Structure formats: C-alpha cells, structure tokens
Amino acid sequence: MNITPKVNGQFTPEDMAYTSIALGTIAGFRGTAPEAGAIKFTFDQFIKTLESDKVVDPSYARELPVYAKEMSDINARHHGNFDFERAKLSVIEKAYRLGLVDRNDLLNPALLARA
Question: Nearest to residue 68, comparing CAs of 50, 46, 92, 49?
C-alpha cells in the first residue's frame, strides 16, 4: 500500500497521526513536549511499521490513553471533521497497541531497530 502524507494537497489521517505523536501534540496536551531534534522516525518508517502489524516492544504496547481520546473528541467538535479525526485516532491507537509510543506519548526512535 502506498500511503502518502498528502493526497490532492490535503493531509491524510495517517500523516496527522504521525505528526501528533512525533511532534508531541498528545504529549503537549499532558504538559510535556519533545526535545528539539528528537524526531528520528520518518513518516515512511512509521507507516511501514504499522503495516507490519507486529508489536515492536511489548513493554510499551498498550491501549490508547483516555486523554488522547478526549483530545481527539475536542478536535472533532471544534473542527467538525469527525470522519477524519476518527481515522487519525485509529492510526494513533494502532501505534500505541504496537508499542511504538513511549511513556511520554512520543514516537520512540529506539524502537525502530526492532521493527
């Protein structure tokens, strides 16, 4: 499958999910943020890892936190993009389930070697 960050000039749910985790949108919602230059996991690597559907690190594999769902609900209500937000949240949920997201709610580049 060829998933790209943009289709017809519009960001895809997959790209927005990647951005939310890689740039710390969810972490920022909790009051933490990534260090500058911390993002070492590319969009393509993120998608390939999700497509493999393999748990990368069982110690990080978990359900999506309630606060991430709440943030998604706020986005959907504020912007009226319920289908897009639901699709984005589904991708984020899978990243958590596969153990790609660290305890600070950021993509963990150290896990890439295990993917």
Answer: 92
